[in-house]
């Protein structure tokens, strides 16, 4: 063997050995790699499965939570339904019980009244018998017992506070008459508190100046309020007012003899006056000079229809301490005041909150602008009879915090005034815009955001329709509205009444006079306004059926159906079977106006006496079939009554028999027409509305 072969053999052996080892290592490495890859794959599958399980579990958990929440809400809703159902059952039982108790109480009250009436009749018979027997000497003891019984009813034995409450309801004339009954009654009429307020206007035609002088002299330290409205007195009588040092309120309106000299004496003697009414007197600039000099605390001042003072007099209001505490000012009818005069008022009376300017055809936008430049506290504004006021006035008033505005008979006020009313006047509560022809549905849409609005008067605004009222009622303003006057808004129909019944839960007073598009269907929805106490349906198409529906309303106290010629006796009769008729249901009716109902007869008065025992005011104008004799009998049952049997005016649209008029008809009053007006007591405007 040669060395080359040896080397070649060794090289071959070595190469074969390396190749064998390498192949073995490669196989082992590949096997290890496959194991590692398989292990990694197993871990990857395990991780993927874990993530998948986690995701599925998460979705399942969310689903279960949603199901639990839905179940919880469902259970809560079921509990609420059960609770509401229980409340409904309880309320139904309570209502039924209350109705039974109410009927029982009413029945007991009727029995009680019948028993009292029977006792009263028996007592009357006994008194008559005792009076007849008292003429015999041997029966004097029975007379003494009657006297003792009378003394037990003497009101002088009541506490002083109760006596004052009784005498406060009497007029000055009645108090004087009571003082002449006997000594005890005279002492009651001389209580000091009874003479804090003296109203001479009620006896201006019967009381002499001499008595007024003596009264003021006697009660000069107690008098706080004096009313001489319309009294024709001597200057000496007015001067005697100066002795009332504690006087706070003085009303001398419509007194033709009241002069600057009278005002001078009063201002020197009564510096504490807070309220002063000088309306329709002959005062001049001399009186205007006295006001800031003596009445430093004056708060209310009325200069209405005083046309003898000038702008110079208004300039005097800033003299001395001035009238800086004035909060109420009435300048109605003072047509002599110019723009400069209003500037003087603004300079001296910056605290005015209530301003009234009626019957002022010379009032212009510039006058209001000059006033509000410094009087930014105005909250109440009344402009009636000011035809030249326009939208510019509303723009100028944007600096004031108005709560009440009243415009009437103005054609220059348009929808532009109400465009930003919710931003400029968010606290408006009373709006009177009667007979303003420029107001349309757009204005009502602008009023809808007013949350404080309680009174809205849009009478004679003929361009207002159902759409505008719907947009108004859809806003928050409908929630608190209490009074709504839509008289002569002839475009309104049943849709408006339906919306009112849905959106006005607090409505008390509603007027739909002469809204002739209303039908029986719309009137039927009025009973759903449960808070309603007064409704005016005069001049509408209401019939007996509609009146029958209205009789279901339990709280209705005032109903006006004048000029409703479709109402007959059948619509207002009372029978045992017709329990839903007007008189049978409306036991608390206080005011009733049936003027122009020409088909009503005397029977209606008998029915009202039976069913409406609380009726106080009854108006029966142009009731041709109601006799004067029956009206006189009815007058003793009510406190105020207006009656005549004249033929209805031509503009009513029908004759004395209820037949529609044609253009050729010539209606003349009947020969037997009669008129009767009975009034037993005087009511304030607020009481008449209530």
Task: Please tell me about this protein's structure.
The chain is of the alpha/beta class and 690 residues long. 44% of the residues lie in helices and 10% in strands. The chain has a 19-stranded mixed β-sheet, covered by helices on one side. Helix 1 (3-133) packs antiparallel against helix 2 (140-151), helix 8 (260-269) packs parallel to helix 9 and helix 11 packs parallel to helix 12 (365-372). The longest helix is centred in the N-terminal third of the chain and has 131 residues, at 3-133. It is elongated and about 180 Å long. The chain starts with a helix and ends with a helix. 30% of the residues are buried. It comes from Piliocolobus tephrosceles (Ugandan red Colobus).
N-to-C span: 149 Å
What structural class do you assign from the helix and strand content? alpha/beta
Strand segment count:
19
pLDDT averaged over residues: 83
| Shape category | elongated
CA radius of gyration is 43 Å
Number of helices: 25
Question: Percentage of helical residues?
Answer: 40-55%
As residue ranges, the low-confidence spans are 135-152, 575-580, 666-690
Beta strand %: 5-15%
Largest sheet: 19 strands, mixed
Quick summary:
By secondary structure, the protein is of the alpha/beta class. 44% of the residues lie in helices and 10% in strands.
């Amino acid at each position: 063997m040669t060395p080359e072969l040896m080397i070649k053999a060794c090289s071959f052996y070595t190469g074969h050995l390396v190749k064998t080892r390498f192949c073995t290592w490669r196989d082992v490495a590949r096997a290890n790699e496959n194991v590692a890859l398989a292990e990694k794959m197993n871990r990857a599958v395990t991780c993927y499965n874990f993530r998948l399980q986690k995701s599925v579990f998460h979705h399942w958990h969310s689903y279960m939570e949603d199901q639990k929440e839905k179940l919880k809400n469902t259970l809560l809703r079921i509990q609420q339904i059960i609770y509401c159902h229980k409340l409904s059952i309880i309320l139904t039982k309570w209502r039924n019980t209350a109705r039974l108790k109410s009927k029982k109480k009413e029945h007991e009250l009727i029995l009680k009244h019948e028993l009292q009436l029977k006792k009263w009749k028996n007592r009357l018979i006994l008194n008559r018998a005792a009076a007849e027997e008292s003429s015999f000497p041997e029966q004097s003891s029975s007379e003494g017992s009657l006297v003792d019984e009378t003394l037990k009813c003497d009101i002088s034995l009541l506490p002083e506070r109760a006596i004052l409450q009784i005498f406060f309801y009497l007029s000055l004339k009645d108090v004087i008459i009571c003082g002449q009954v006997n000594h005890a009654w005279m002492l009651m009429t001389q209580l000091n508190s009874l003479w804090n307020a003296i109203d001479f206007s009620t006896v201006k035609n019967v009381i002499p100046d001499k008595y007024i002088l003596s009264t003021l002299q006697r009660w000069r330290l107690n008098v706080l309020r004096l009313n001489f409205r319309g009294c024709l007195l001597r200057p000496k009588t007015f001067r005697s007012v100066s002795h009332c040092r504690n006087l706070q309120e003085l009303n001398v309106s419509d007194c033709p003899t009241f002069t600057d000299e009278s005002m001078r004496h009063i201002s020197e003697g009564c510096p504490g006056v807070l309220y002063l009414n000088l309306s329709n007197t002959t005062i001049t600039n001399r009186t205007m000079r006295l006001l800031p000099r003596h009445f430093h605390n004056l708060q209310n001042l009325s200069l209405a229809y005083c046309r003898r003072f000038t702008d110079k007099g208004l300039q005097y209001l800033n003299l001395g301490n001035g009238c800086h505490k004035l909060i109420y000012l009435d300048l109605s009818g003072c047509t002599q005041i110019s723009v400069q005069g209003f500037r003087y008022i603004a300079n001296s009376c910056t605290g005015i909150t209530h301003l009234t300017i009626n019957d002022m055809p010379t009032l212009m936008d510039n006058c209001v602008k000059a006033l509000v430049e410094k009087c930014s506290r105005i909250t109440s504004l009344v402009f009636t009879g000011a035809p030249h006021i326009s939208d510019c006035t509303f723009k100028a008033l944007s600096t004031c915090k108005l709560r009440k505005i009243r415009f009437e008979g103005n054609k220059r006020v348009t929808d532009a005034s109400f465009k930003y009313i919710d931003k400029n006047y968010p606290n408006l509560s009373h709006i009177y815009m009667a007979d303003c022809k420029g107001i349309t549905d757009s204005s009502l849409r602008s009023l809808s955001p007013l949350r404080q609005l309680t009174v809205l008067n849009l009478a004679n605004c003929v361009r207002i329709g159902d759409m505008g009222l719907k947009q108004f009622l859809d806003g928050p303003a409908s929630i608190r509205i209490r009074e709504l006057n839509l008289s002569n808004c002839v475009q309104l129909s049943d849709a408006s009444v339906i919306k009112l019944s849905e959106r006005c839960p607090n409505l008390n007073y509603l007027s739909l006079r002469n809204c002739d598009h209303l039908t029986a269907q719309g009137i039927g929805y009025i009973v759903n306004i449960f808070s309603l106490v007064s409704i005016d349906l005069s001049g509408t198409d209401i019939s007996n059926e509609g009146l029958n529906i209205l009789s279901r309303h339990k709280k209705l106290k005032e109903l006006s159906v004048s000029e409703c010629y479709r109402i007959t006796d059948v619509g207002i009769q009372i029978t045992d079977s017709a329990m839903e008729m007007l008189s049978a249901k409306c036991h608390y009716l206080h005011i009733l106006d049936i003027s122009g109902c020409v088909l009503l007869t005397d029977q209606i008065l008998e029915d009202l006496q039976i069913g409406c025992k609380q009726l106080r005011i009854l108006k029966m104008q142009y009731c041709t079939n109601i006799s004067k004799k029956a009206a006189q009998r009815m007058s003793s049952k009510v406190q105020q009554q207006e009656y005549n049997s004249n033929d209805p005016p031509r503009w009513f649209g029908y004759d004395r028999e209820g037949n529609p008029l044609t253009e050729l008809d010539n209606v003349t009053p009947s020969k037997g027409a009669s008129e009767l007006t009975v009034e037993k007591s005087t009511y304030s405007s607020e009481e008449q509305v209530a």
